[in-house]
Amino acid sequence: MIIGVPKEIKNNESRVGMTPAGIYELVKNNHTVYVQSTAGEGSGFFDEDYIEAGATILATIEEVYLSSDMIVKVKEPIEPEYHLIQKGQVIFTYFHFASSEKLTRAMIARGAICIAYETVEDEDGSLPLLTPMSEVAGRMAIQQGAKYLEKPEKGRGVLLGGVPGVPPGKVLVLGAGIVGTQAAKMAAGLGAHVTILDINMKRLRYINDVMPSHVVTEFSNEFNIRKHIKTHDLIIGGVLLKGAKAPNLITRDMLKSMRPGTVIVDVAVDQGGCVETTRPTTHEDPVYIIDDVVHYSVANMPGAVPYTSTMALTNVTLPYILALANKGWFKACEDDLSLHKGLNIIEGEVAYKEIIETFQWDTALA
Ligand SMILES: NC(=O)c1ccc[n+]([C@@H]2O[C@H](COP(=O)([O-])OP(=O)(O)OC[C@H]3O[C@@H](n4cnc5c(N)ncnc54)[C@H](O)[C@@H]3O)[C@@H](O)[C@H]2O)c1
């Protein structure tokens, strides 16, 4: 199979769909890989690295799309890419179709086979190609939160780890899923006092088992949240209700009970946020202040650490890419139920019923 790796052209996206290590595996399996010149630079991989791994470098994005059977990338195709997509071409990337009817209609019209990272689903309901980005965002949340707690950033002026003779800062984590667990681990590593809340007792039991004793678990309810926000310096929002808007666990009126300079990092912003006052921000302008509370709510946190994010993503996508290349998309999806769930659009036909429900279309054939 001929596999193409174009350069991402979405604003501020520095990740790339494959690393040289992935190219090496594909070439070893007798496939041909075309990589667009400078596609990997933002993630620290240069054309020479790809050539050494066995790829051929093509100068333009047009050449990559025109000459490949399968395109592997990171973000959904944006408008200037729509016309490049070929009939019958496999596109393996994040799509998030439910958030864009325009993109969905464009992909239907192009007749491609769209396999979406975000809907590849394991038997236990976990989403293996989303997990690494939650891991990155959860860990990064503490790094960012620690920075915005500094006085020049309008934070309380608290050092999370404290120093001998001065108690550590306090971190409240809402949600003990992937984001919450990673955030708690990082905060605990810095020496902060951590309180983590969830409604899932299994998750709280797990956290209680694996974390050090300065990570305290509590059941999530309004009473406990109102109590803790008054005394915690940094609050991490990592709550998810699958397929729904995140619940507003912190409402506007609660901000007044927090101490000035408290920092909220609402990682759940991409699902609407779990704080009523959350609105999406960007890496260029990541924070805003309401009632003296600093809000950080960047919707694509992993984009700021493209080297780590690219490696984390490609570690988990590579086995699927290899299966798709070795067997062809039909057999690969037939053999692997997880990958089959990733099929969203097949040559003009919608294969993922949630898309039809979202747009309230009558039929899978648009
Ligand atoms: N901003 C970013 O760049 C970025 C990056 C990655 C993930 N995310 C988002 O972060 C969010 C969390 O992702 P995740 O992978 O950790 O999800 P997850 O499913 O692993 O964890 C969510 C947790 O929230 C818990 N929860 C549900 N209702 C709750 C409540 N009322 N109180 C406390 N906990 C509650 C669930 O029990 C679960 O343990 C998602 O919205 C995800 O899309 C954002």
Report on this model:
With 366 residues, this protein is an alpha/beta fold. The chain contains 13 helices and 15 strands. The chain has helices at 20-28, 47-53, 61-66, 79-82, 101-110, 131-148, 178-190, 201-210, 222-229, 306-327, 329-335, 337-340, 353-359; strands spanning 2-5, 32-36, 56-58, 70-72, 90-93, 113-116, 170-174, 193-198, 215-219, 234-237, 263-266, 287-290, 293-296, 343-346, 349-350. The strands form 2 sheets. An 8-stranded mixed beta sheet has the order 3-2-1-4-5-6-14-15, with helices on both faces. A 7-stranded mixed beta sheet has the order 9-8-7-10-11-13-12, sandwiched between helices. Helix 4 links the parallel strand 4 (70-72) and strand 5 (90-93). The two termini are 29 Å apart. Nicotinamide-adenine-dinucleotide binds at residues 133-134, 137, 174-180, 197-200, 203, 220, 238-241, 246-247, 249, 267-271, 299-302.
Low-confidence segments, ≥5 residues, pLDDT <50? Answer: none
How many beta strands in the DSSP annotation? 15
Major sheet description: 8 strands, mixed
Strand content: 15-25%
Heteromolecules bound = nicotinamide-adenine-dinucleotide
Question: How many helices?
Answer: 13
Termini, distance in Å? 29 Å
The computed structural class is: alpha/beta
Average residue-wise pLDDT: 95
The spatial strand order of the largest sheet comes to: 3-2-1-4-5-6-14-15
Radius of gyration: 22 Å
* Topology order in helix (H) and strand (E) letters: EHEHEHEHEHEHEHEHEHEEEEHHHEEH
Coarse shape: elongated
Residue share in helix? 25-40%
